[in-house]
Amino acid sequence: MEQPGLGLEPPRVGQPSAAEELIPQAPTLSGLRDAAAGCRACDLYKTGTQTVFGEGGEHASVMFVGEQPGDREDIEGKPFVGPAGRLLDEALAEAGIDRKRVYITNAVKHFKWKPQGKRRLHQKPNAAEISACRPWLDAEIALIKPTILVLLGATAAQALLGRDFRVSLQRGQFIERPGLPLMMATVHPSSILRAPDDESREIEMQAFVQDLRRLAQRIKGS
Ligand code: URA
Ligand code: SF4
Prior knowledge:
The chain is of the alpha/beta class. It has a single domain (18-221), classed as Uracil-DNA Glycosylase, subunit E (3-Layer(aba) Sandwich), CATH 3.40.470. The protein is 42% helix and 14% strand. It is globular and about 45 Å long. The protein starts with 18 loop residues before the first helix and ends with a helix. Iron/sulfur cluster binds next to helix 3 and helix 6.
């Protein structure tokens, strides 16, 4: 029990509610998006410009899950529209996957950053932020019912497959878990952008495209 005046838990009046409490009954995609726009379930709403919800077809068979919006995404309000998004577009095109046929979202829906000079430097979301934001991802999965979830990078992979999951050891494999669609984890497009030189960037890009080709094979006809 909360006991005001004893220095224990402050009363919850005026406190942000958990994301679950904001999710409408039998939501539509736009209903979910509208509800998420007002989310204050963790502190990231204070530093992010807006909630960057997922985008794509409501009946998409593939859902890509990134980490969190970056600087451009925060401003435009759409996922993967900055440099990492351009790289993802390129890789999808090379693998023969139409971006318009997939749904793209993030594990965390506000941009986390710290100032560095005039720039906003990306900061990794922590476990509490990832779990505060999880109900939105679960609601997207429940609504869209993708055949395959593609987890881009360690944050998305560990959010769905557990903290011990290592993308480097199991990338490109199809993974089954009860209660979830079939999953494949691969690298995050930003990691390819961070490659130290052109040659290694090209090698990493080809490995990424290779993972996406396996995905394309698997979804053929679905
Ligand atoms: N990186 C992500 O993980 N998601 C985006 O939307 C953009 C960059
Ligand atoms: Fe809500 Fe997620 Fe934004 Fe946190 S990051 S305020 S949980 S939408």
